[in-house]
Amino acid sequence: xxxxxxxxxxxxxxxxxxxxxxxxxxxxxxxxxxxxxxxxxxxxxxxxxxxxxxxxxxxxxxxxxxxxxxxxxxxxxxxxxxxxxxxxxxxxxxxxxxxxxxxxxxxxxxxxxxxxxxxxxxxxxxxxxxxxxxxxxxxxxxxxxxxxxxxxxxxxxxxxxxxxxxxxxxxxxxxxxxxxxxxxxxxxxxxxxxxxxxxxxxxxxxxxxxxxxxxxxxxxxxxxxxxxxxxxxxxxxxxxxxxxxxxxxxxxxxxxxxxxxxxxxxxxxxxxxxxxxxxxxxxxxxxxxxxxxxxxxxxxxxxxxxxxxxxxxxxxxxxxxxxxxxxxxxxxxxxxxxxxxxxxxxxxxxxxxxxxxxxxxxxxxxxxxxxxxxxxxxxxxxxxxxxxxxxxxxxxxxxxxxxxxxxxxxxxxxxxxxxxxxxxxxxxxxxxxxxxxxxxxxxxxxxxxxxxxxxxxxxxxxxxxxxxxxxxxxxxxxxxxxxxxxxxxxxxxxxxxxxxxxxxxxxxxxxxxxxxxxxxxxxxxxxxxxxxxxxxxxxxxxxxxxxxxxxxxxxxxxxxxxxxxxxxxxxxxxxxxxxxxxxxxxxxxxxxxxxxxxxxxxxxxxxxxxxx
Length: 612
Description:
By secondary structure, this protein is mainly beta. Helix content is 5%, strand content 34%. It has three helices and 37 strands. Strands 21, 22, 23, 24, 25 and 26 form a six-stranded antiparallel β-sheet that branches. Strands 8, 9, 10, 13 and 16 form a five-stranded antiparallel β-sheet that branches. Strands 1-37-36-35 form a four-stranded antiparallel β-sheet, with no helix packed on it.
């Protein structure tokens, strides 16, 4: 009904903002592109015009846990508070009043003496239960110290389609590691939710009040009973109610997919997919993917391990990791993003860097398996995504770093008799970051010419971190972070809740601080919808009601005792999924919504909007 009511308003708006085709977006057979630019004014108003809703999920509860490694150094301006004692959790999680069972092997000085407050919530994933579209589980990094980059993974759960998030807390089972990282999850066909986790150990130079520099000597670990690094699983069984209701063991010990104690080598970039289609020959096969980096060989290799999910939330043993096909066996493969199509074919993107040491370009391809992960084929190259210019480590004007350069998904509706596969990626070839999109409608043999996703009229801004999802009816969404709107001006009503006055230290910004009205600085979240054949449906829609400042409370990614701010963090990706025809996104904001975020911590905001 809302679309009918707005129909009379849309025609003049579209005519006013259609200022011309986007550069490099010529029509392509099968792609149906033709997205045209829109003014910043029209984009800013698209939140209200499209009935977008925002819910600040992680401000609704107070979460605490006992870190394995404490770090109390406090950073300079921008709202930093350091690691602080728990003021009283409102979740039902185990906050660690007594040490967690997996902290029993901690050496002298570890773990922390008591529970600590979770402040920042960076990087996120979101999954809709295929058995119940009102049931959603999202996860993110759960920081106890932004200055020390000290975090585990946390989750937040909704049973009403994202309106409320009453169950929250850290994901238990691996608190005996310094950090748990890279949130990602998947539901099996029984309604059990699997979180694939990357736990690892390090200490700080100078101890709990030291410099923030991280020490990774695998012979001197804070917890002698835990491996240096691992890929692990925690399962939230169907019907779980409390924050503590997780299965974290397998065969009497931690649920390890991979253990790595080798100095100079580490696993990273893990991802998970589960075949939840009852009609698939590979129903309830779990695909756990990750890469292992070898610092001596300056390369990384991609692997997959599989298991079978069971109704009670347990699973079969993990298979021996199998090497995935690579475009260039002597270089660096990473960013595995597996998805299963309705036929039971499992696909994954695979990103290849010709040099691990000097990353200036990258190339994209896909691997796939027709037999439930027993054998693999590929990579099939995406022709328009070869030797793509990689974005800088930190974007213009700000200190936050970008990570995963691409996103991948499979289609749910046939096009020309086949299920499509879609790839979207960042391209910095113009000197600013743009998002491109391509699809294959013949099993990866050929791909549509890349089309630009972001429709900003001003080319001198960055759009980054695309995230693909496909609805059951075939609609495709590409969500991304967007810097086209200027930071709030000093006189505006948005300046105070956005916390702009706190942003007074920034070595990457040549303008006047605080950055009132700064261009290509503050952030929004956006979405662009497409048909299954990649015909654009309308224009970019603003998903964030409020523009936010990424410099506030941004975690220090690599650590520094000087706290002068070179590399900070908002996440390498964020969550995107569909519940029927409703698009749901979870992404970061530091905005103080209705006084619920006065310290301007990084919070997760759930955006919902009806797809066309």
